[in-house]
Amino acid sequence: MAVPVYHLRIRDSMMRVFLILLWTTNLVQRNVPQAARVQVFPPVNFTLTVCALAQVLLHWKPNPNQEQKNYTIRYDVKILSPVPEEYDTRKTHSIRTAVLHNGFSAHIRTLLHHNDLEMRSDWVKEKILPPPGAPETSVTNLSCVTRITISNTVSLHCTWLPGQGAPEDTKYFLFYRYEMYTEECQDYIKDKWNRNTECRFSVTHIDPEEVDNLIVIHINGSSKYAAIKPFQQLFNQNAIEKVNVPRNVTVFLEQNDLLATWEKPISPFRKECFEYEFYLFNLKSGNKQILKIFSTSFRLRIDVTNRYSIQIRANHHICCTRGFWSDWSETIYVGENKLENPMAWILAVLCVSTCCTFLLVAIVCKILWEKWQISERQTQHNNWRP
Questions:
Q1: How far is CA 22 from CA 9, 19, 26, 363, in A?
Q2: Rounded Cα distance, 309 and 114, in Å
Q3: Of residues 215 and 23, more confidently modeled
Q4: Following CA atoms 155, 136, 103, 146 in sequence, which dihedral angle do they give, to the nearest 10 degrees?
Q5: Residues 353-362: what's their mean pLDDT?
């Protein structure tokens, strides 16, 4: 009996699929590095060491029992707290910046690579315990501001509130770290209980030309009655910068246009790195406008018969993280309060003056008339007396 042609085609197709699956299985088996016999061991001597303020050194060693021939070894690092993070590395050490007042914990494991296959060991765990201290004795509401000075140095000013559980004799001490530099505050401002609540550094090691580097603030304390818990916070150096005021602001009128020019604030960043807010206030109508400007000049059509007040402020734009807006520049006035129809004003003044004059004359006449009548009645009364 003849076999239909389409049945032969189906059989051939199934045979091809079977051969492809068999070849793939053999290939995978050859690529598995003796999976049943290869064991992946976790790293050894995993340690966490505080090497600077808010900085931890993670260090470990390869497991000496680990087979390395024809394999690539990497390590999977998982930070559990204070901020979860996971990454892999070929090195046997890693440095992380993190606040440590609530402790630090991390896991690590070995990753064994062979071609496109990856095998993993068990996790190894380690942690740093939180520093001692009574509850609610650490500072709260910590905020810091930096400014770039005219000499291209950076000042730092921090404020905070004492912890609700801190005794009245608590003394707080502030330290900042920037890269490898650590410095203690020497200029404090105190509250009514003589506790430090502000710190000022007129000059710091903060580099004004760096972008988005971290500033570590560490505040600890002491008291006769309680252990004061330390507190740490990380700040982006550009995010807490109080930008300087735009310089040399000039405003003038050109026919019906208002023209304004200025220079960028004191800063190592180029002028394209700033944005501006242009505040225009119509003193006659009371209308206010705040316009976004991305250059150092501006032209606007206005009603020149009105008088305006103008101010400008600046902030970071594209080169780094936005900071705090600068203060407003000094107020500049332009334009005149001209009357739209002076003749109408003159006529109105004349009309009011005339009315007031007639009213005054009428009042005077009435008073004189009343006095004359009283005098006449008195005279008549005297004449009738016998």
A1: 20, 5, 6, 124
A2: 72
A3: 215
A4: -10
A5: 72
Yes or no: say if 265 and 277 are a contact pair by the CB < 8 Å rule.
no
Tell me what percent of the residues of the chain surpass a pLDDT of 70. Answer: 81
pLDDT, residue 12, reads: 60
Q: Which two tokens stand for residue 255?
A: 């026919």
Determine contact, residues 97/55, Cβ cutoff 8 Å. yes
* Residues 178-212 pLDDT 10s: 999 999 999 999 998 899 999 999 999 999 999 99
User: Are the C-beta atoms of 216 and 195 separated by less than 8 Å?
Assistant: no
pLDDT at 38: 76
pTM of the model: 0.75
d(CA 110, CA 88): 10
Q: Dump pLDDT digits (tens) for 229-257.
A: 999 999 999 999 999 999 999 999 988 89
Please, are residues 171 and 222 in contact by the beta-carbon 8 Å criterion?
Answer: yes
